[in-house]
Please model this.
Amino acid sequence: MGLFSTVEAKSLEDLLSHHLKDLYDAEHLILEALPKMIETAQYPALKEALENHRVETEGQVKRLEECFERMDMEPERESCAGMKGIIAEGEKMMKGDMTPELKDVAIIEAAQKVEHYEISCYGTARAIAMELGQAEIADLLNQNLQEEGKADQLLTEIATKDVNPSAK
Ligand code: FE
Ligand code: ZN
Ligand code: FE
Model:
């Protein structure tokens, strides 16, 4: 199987199932990647924000499982090549040769790329769920979307107030 396997969709509903499987994989990839990022981060508020979002991500996985249930589907991961790539870039940065201060800047960059990608995916999936009249699924996806937005805003705050100035 290549990087992008073929997606078969005959309806908008099929596309929604695809997005759910893709997001389910993406959230698991993030859960696998976060411990290393938390360990590598130096600035306490950054460590804490990442740890809080890790716990939040466990809840997001549960919400996706509820979405599958409402679609009468078993939860299933379908490889999210986008998130895989974003995480691979982050890992490259974390292995990089730089001061701890610069590394915190790099970790925030990687984490915000993850959030932005998630915001994009959840926004699309929510819109499709709404179009299909799947209000409960749309609401669950919206809850995840809101959490990603808040995580992203907090990272911007930590970067601009503390981490970026310390790296100068
Ligand atoms: Fe997430
Ligand atoms: Zn994806
Ligand atoms: Fe997130």
